[in-house]
Amino acid sequence: MNEKKINETSKNIFLIETSCKGYLDLRQLCAVKSAARAHPDWQINLLFVGPVTHEKLTTGILSSLQAYENVVIARVYLSQIVKDTPLERVLTENLLETSEYRYAHVSDIIRLLLLWKFGGVYMDLDIVVLKPFDDLGPDFAGLDAPNSVNTAVMGFKVYSEETFYPISAQHWREYFQPGVFNVKRFSKSHTVHVLNSLSHVIKDRTIKPWTLYANMAKMFCPPIYSVNPESLSEQ
């Protein structure tokens, strides 16, 4: 990653693909496009831990991001991002090798150091942005339950559940059940979190066009929805 390309005004949004699969599925692409759409004057930094081929960038669904002038795609190297930081010893002393949750910890390290170095906002790739972050200030995170802070969207000030996670993790299935986007219900929400880590267990992996998630995608990342609502299933 060329750190000189990072926006120096702190108007950065960072999204990180850590599985090393070398592409995004449509649900992840919806996260990027909804962020770019809501923040035309912010830089949306889509970072891959693993390599991405030229073919994927230029002919696959990633190529559709070329239409967004505020989206930057780059590869991030753990060895580079930890250099000269308080977390450098995690890598130099091979502490990750003994971690039971190695990949989750790599993701945590990268997201925290990006915010520590550059400021801005980190968000997971299973987030849909409903409205801009401009009014949140520089430091925030959000509760997803009365006693649980979620780091799927953060900049270090803690906001109430309704700000980022209006539907709690316990009720994630509601996104994939019949529903319409109720403006009043989500009026105080900047994002929703559809929890790919849990929703992948759905036996019928297709996303029906009458579900709450599909209706949100239709409104907030319409280019993705228009491809085929059912293809929004996590790949």
The spatial strand order of the largest sheet comes to 3-2-1-4-8
Number of domains: 1
Radius of gyration, in angstroms, nearest whole number = 17 Å
H/E series, N to C?
EHEHEHHHEEEEEEHEHHH
Give the integer mean of the pLDDT values: 87
Helix/strand-derived category reads alpha/beta
Distance between the termini: 26 Å
Q: What is the third-level CATH name, the topology?
A: Spore Coat Polysaccharide Biosynthesis Protein SpsA, Chain A
What percent of residues are in strands?
A: 15-25%
Instruction: Please estimate the helix content.
Output: 25-40%
Largest sheet: 5 strands, mixed
What would you call the shape?
A: globular
Based on the coordinates given, report the CATH architecture: Alpha-Beta Complex
Number of strands: 10
State the CATH class. Alpha Beta
How would you describe this protein?
By secondary structure, the protein is of the alpha/beta class. It has a single domain, classed as Spore Coat Polysaccharide Biosynthesis Protein SpsA, Chain A (Alpha-Beta Complex). It has helices spanning 26-38, 54-59, 78-81, 88-92, 102-118, 161-164, 196-199, 212-220, 222-227, and strands at residues 12-17, 43-48, 71-75, 121-123, 127-129, 141-145, 148-150, 153-154, 158-159, 191-193. A 5-stranded mixed β-sheet has the order 3-2-1-4-8, sandwiched between helices. The mean pLDDT is 87.
